[in-house]
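Exercise 7. Given the components listed, write out the predicted structure of the assembled complex. Treat all entries as one system.
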Amino acid sequence: MDHTYRLVISCPDRVGIVARVSQFVADQGGWLTEANYHADADNNWFFMRNEIRADSLRMGAEAVRDAFAPIAQEYEMAWELVDSSVKRKVVILASHASHCIADILHRWHSGELDCDIPCVISNHENLRSMVEWHGIPFEYVKIDPENKMPAHTKIMELTAEYQADCVVLARYMQIIQPEFCRAYSGRMINIHHSFLPSFIGANPYQKAFDRGVKLIGATSHYVTEQLDEGPIIEQDVIRVSHRHSKDDLVRLGKDVEKSVLARALRNHIEDRVLVLGNKTVVFD
Amino acid sequence: MDHTYRLVISCPDRVGIVARVSQFVADQGGWLTEANYHADADNNWFFMRNEIRADSLRMGAEAVRDAFAPIAQEYEMAWELVDSSVKRKVVILASHASHCIADILHRWHSGELDCDIPCVISNHENLRSMVEWHGIPFEYVKIDPENKMPAHTKIMELTAEYQADCVVLARYMQIIQPEFCRAYSGRMINIHHSFLPSFIGANPYQKAFDRGVKLIGATSHYVTEQLDEGPIIEQDVIRVSHRHSKDDLVRLGKDVEKSVLARALRNHIEDRVLVLGNKTVVFD
Amino acid sequence: MDHTYRLVISCPDRVGIVARVSQFVADQGGWLTEANYHADADNNWFFMRNEIRADSLRMGAEAVRDAFAPIAQEYEMAWELVDSSVKRKVVILASHASHCIADILHRWHSGELDCDIPCVISNHENLRSMVEWHGIPFEYVKIDPENKMPAHTKIMELTAEYQADCVVLARYMQIIQPEFCRAYSGRMINIHHSFLPSFIGANPYQKAFDRGVKLIGATSHYVTEQLDEGPIIEQDVIRVSHRHSKDDLVRLGKDVEKSVLARALRNHIEDRVLVLGNKTVVFD
Amino acid sequence: MDHTYRLVISCPDRVGIVARVSQFVADQGGWLTEANYHADADNNWFFMRNEIRADSLRMGAEAVRDAFAPIAQEYEMAWELVDSSVKRKVVILASHASHCIADILHRWHSGELDCDIPCVISNHENLRSMVEWHGIPFEYVKIDPENKMPAHTKIMELTAEYQADCVVLARYMQIIQPEFCRAYSGRMINIHHSFLPSFIGANPYQKAFDRGVKLIGATSHYVTEQLDEGPIIEQDVIRVSHRHSKDDLVRLGKDVEKSVLARALRNHIEDRVLVLGNKTVVFD
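Answer.
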């Protein structure tokens, strides 16, 4: 990975934003390796992401931030300057299912996913060996069905201790506490095993089977307090037919789930996903 | 198209059905060009479709039907022996939108769709010239929003007069009367402009746009009295992104709608679609 | 369609291009509705396309062009400022097959394709009625297999007479003269009925059938003097299996051909396709 | 997995085959859970695969085989009766790349792939730990570039020792000896990292990048003595654009490679792939 800075901005749309920002970048000597813009006409909102070669800038990240702050204020920008060499800390929550987490761990292990994974937290022990083989701490938190709060609290504490920048629910089958949702707003990614908004909630493959759909899908979205209603980052589908049993749908769906989650996570950690209301801009 | 007979069967599953039917076919000298079977384990039901070269049979269609009847009775079969040389009469109902009907008419005109189209019925005049250029009668039936029943009745009468075997709703935006649904149960095909069961009812593209989905779709299904709830024949999707306005979704969706409807109709008129409850078996 | 100007640029990459161009646009009061950038690292080349609301500019197109010329010179740009209200003239060359041309004509007729079609030229008469129904002149040019040059010359003359900005080969099965290729370099679009570079030349469906591929495709590309070797604009595929005969491949392939050609043509007439060497940048 | 017998047959086509075979199955009390047929009109050849519930048969596998042999002889059948409870032994050959083998191992470990993996053989050591974590022997065979024959011989010996029914080349980058190809004809599966027949041989991603294709793909095929020319089992593609570098193609292609190989292998070990000449029938 080349060392870059990512200047990610969203603000009210008006004439001259690109000019102002790109002039600023040019003034620092910044060499753009990638630049993306989107004007949302319905909301009159503007989004941009500039990827700048670090070695082309005349100053360091902090100095750039200081220099940019007045412009950001003038244009009422929500913005970040992200240093690509500082890896995001991604904490993974898992339950029993292994396909999504195995996929993420392999992508991480082979260098495809440019992040740190400080720990995996699960309410089952079955994935411990796989996680530890990768050199990642495995935190087992038993959930008492009669009283789930202590476990929820423990998981939030662990997430904080490991300083997670981002939380991935890799087929973690538990409801997330509102407090946890809010703390990781726009930074907690779920994979739902249906093509949302079809088949919200439990047992989507059974529902898909019963409805007789000809495609099944998966959806990765940011978690909000409304179950399966958060901003969608990525979706995909696979063709099925009458020949497939409900178990076949589960099996075929796994491949969609893991690839959809992997793409969503990759785009998130590369700062390619910007949220407006309940929708996303994905500069992929 | 080669001249064939299609022996299409559904019945309770038990040992020996394939043997019994294929022995019958072989006894008549029948040369199978295609044979499809499906055992539905959940409902213990069996489906089969045999396509037999007409010139290989020692007797005509009526004699084959007489000879097969006792077997059908023994196995409690719902069945048909369809002569591929007798073209299905497909009546098309349309409103204002032209993309689906233009697509069907071109496929029919170029010989790709092996059916007759005895007439097109519409509550708008704008498609008359296109339909008539194809040499197909165009029946305009004005719908009075204050009193729709006379129009509904007229449309049912026209469909009967033209002896429709099958009715296609090519983006026909009117509710179908229950009586009409029942008369054409399993023979009336709709195209809905969403990936069902997402976005049932009106304005699915607006709903898809508002939800921020990353794929939009279309669904072709048999019409039942429950709006957009009938057995699904075919579905497909296309990728969209934040760059697409609601009008873009409408435009991109048209291509999915017309290809999904064309595939569904083709499979229907080739007797490849069998219905069980609210689901379909499609031997494509 | 909103009235816009499209400022389309390619030039050697260096620091400050975006800043310079977007400052220029902002200085004219230009409101960007869409902006796309691409830096080709291998060739050190930069591409940009800005779409600007016409009513936001303080001057007309000619004045903008004059004002921009010095910047273009400084940065060694190949550039255009295209007025979206001036429709491109697209001349279509066809042979006997109707699927691609019927698709283009319907998209044009229904207002989806924002161009003029001054005429269709064909070496067969069978499409005359369909073309003329759309109100478009049909020019029949008979090709003598023993001496094709007079026909080639006639077609070039007609193309010039009708002032074609762009030529579409809608399954036109004749070799294009080198002189014609050069005259319409980057403006003549072909649809080849295979997934290039597989199955170059004649009978690609037969070749695909013989090889036993599991997907067939189509490719739209700019025509160059090397048969089927020009810059690819768009490709797509469809799944096939052992059940499909060679005729099925031809039938299924038609749907891919027409959608690939339609997407390529749309992107071309919206100035979204930029060529570098034998490759394209497509800002779709 | 239910215990079944798979009766897989290919033979010259003639009237009555299905009747004869299905009567035989019915006479043994055989309950069909799945039945597939294909008549290849070009070669006048017939293919069938019957999956029969083991507990429905009145006799064991050996007795069924004895009883069926005369029928097979009469119809000149190539055939097998496969017991689904006897797991195939799949030996994997790998080099340095981990994505395909990690994917197969996880599918096997999670019970999705119903086979045994008696060993993995590689000319690199880097995958040892991953393979051994799964409880599978790892055989390192160093290949001397100056004299590859001893290594080739060793690999063939190991394959024989471990009694491989099937060999998978999971991005194994070495040429296979003709003798090895012949010994495992129709049982050795390769994954090639292009959409064949495009980009045969080395560096297909570089070739795809240089040609500027808009989709890249992968192909799984049976290995023959002609490099990348064997019968294709499965293919798939993924969309790319000008934004993707050659390294991006490599990364995106990995996902296609592993899913294509997994589907091909699954179909192979479930006896769903039948070969005729250089093409396959895949009853999926």
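Discussion: Residues 246-269 of chain B form the longest helix (24 residues). The interface with chain A takes residues 38, 40-41, 195-199, 211-215, 217, 231-237, 241-243, 245, 278-282 of chain B (CB under 8 Å).
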